[in-house]
Amino acid sequence: MATTEQKVKKSVRIRLEKEAQKQFKEENKGKLGSVQSSLRNIPTAPRKMRLVADMIRGERVNIALNILRFDGKHASNTLEKLLLTAVADWQASNEEVKIEEADLYVKEVFVDSARILKRLRPAPQGRAHRIRKRSNHVTIVIDDRNAENNTKAETENS
C-alpha cells in the first residue's frame, strides 16, 4: 500500500512545504545570517553593470548607497534600488536587531549574463550586421559584520 505522502495532492504538498519553510524561518530568526537579493533580466550590458558592482563590493551599506547615489552611470540607479531591497529583506529576517546597531556590508555582488536579443542592422551592399542587445542578472548578498565576529568567537571558545 502507498504511503500517505504519495496520496497527497501536489497543491497540498506545496502548501505544507511552504508552511514548513515559514516555521523554520520563525524558529531561526536572527540566526539566518546573510540575506540575498537578486534582480533578473536587466536591460543593461553585464560589462557595464560589473563596473558599478565592483565599486561597492566589500563596502559598508551606507557607503555603498552613497557611492551609487552620486555615480553618474545608468546601472547605479538599478543597483541602488536592489541594495535597498536587500537591506529591507535583512531587516525583515532580523527584526530583533536594530539596523542602526548592525554593521551591514556588501558581502558579495555578482553580475551574470542573461538573455541576448539579436537584431539585424542594414550594412553596405545589401548585407546585414547582427546587433546583440545584452541583459544581465544581478545578485547582492549583505551580512552583518558584528554577527560574523560573534559566531567566530563562539566557535573559538567551544
Looking at the chains present, what oligomeric state does this protein adopt?
Answer: single chain
Element-level helix/strand string: HHEHHHEEH
> What's the end-to-end separation, in Å?
48 Å
Give the amount of beta strand, in percent. 25-35%
Query: What characterizes the major β-sheet?
Result: 3 strands, antiparallel
Low-confidence parts, pLDDT < 50 over ≥5 residues? none
The helicity comes to: 40-55%
Annotation field: number of helices: 6
What is the β-strand count? Answer: 3
Strands ordered across the widest β-sheet: 1-3-2
Mean pLDDT: 89
Description:
The chain is an alpha+beta fold and 158 residues long. It contains six helices and three strands; from the N terminus they run ααβαααββα. It has a three-stranded antiparallel sheet with strand order 1-3-2. A hairpin with a 5-residue loop joins strand 2 and strand 3. The chain is flat and about 75 Å long. The N and C termini lie far apart (48 Å). The relative contact order is 0.18. The model has no long low-confidence stretch (mean pLDDT 89).
